[in-house]
Amino acid sequence: MAEPDGMSLAKAQAFRLTQCALALDRANDGGVPVSKALTNALLDNLETWVAMKTFVDSESCAYDDMTKGNLARLCAYVFDKTLAFRDGVAPEVLNSLINLNFQIAEGLLEGERNRR
The domain spanning residue 52 has which CATH number? Predict the structure, then answer.
């Protein structure tokens, strides 16, 4: 998943989350077993959240402790729900991952606007 050059870290993370949400939505066929397209979208999303967790745990992360804790809990949620997909897709869980990505992307962008 490519990130446009010249973006701030928050914008790049928001971009990745949004792209993953759109890919999950496009691949959502509601089928069991999980389709190859949905598997790929889930793996891309998981990768994005692993990167988020790595950043949140790094010394260079400037987020306050409450934000770091909230993001860490959301990362754990995404990890758990993604790994559960091997047995099929619960539409409400997939929708929650899609909505979560959009909401966190919006929050990252809003936080950046507020820091200016």
Answer: 1.20.120
Residue 16 domain flag: yes
**How many separate domains does the chain show?**
1
Which pair of tokens denotes residue 66? 């409450």
**What is the distance between the alpha carbons of residues 19 and 99, in angstroms, rounded to a whole number?**
12
The confidence score (pLDDT) of residue 88 equals 75
* Residue with the two structure tokens 């966190």: 104
State the residue for tokens 């993953």: 20
Residues 79 and 97: beta-carbon distance below 8 Å: no
Q: Look at residues 111, 59, 103, 61 and name the one whose alpha carbon lies nearest to residue 78.
A: 103
What are the helix (H) ranges across 1-116?
9-27, 36-57, 65-83, 91-115
Position 1 confidence tier, pLDDT thresholds 50, 70, 90: very low
Residue 52 resides in a domain? yes
Domain-embedded: residue 59: yes
- Positive or negative, the CA dihedral 100, 25, 38, 20 is negative
Domain that holds residue 17: 9-115
pTM assigned to the model: 0.86
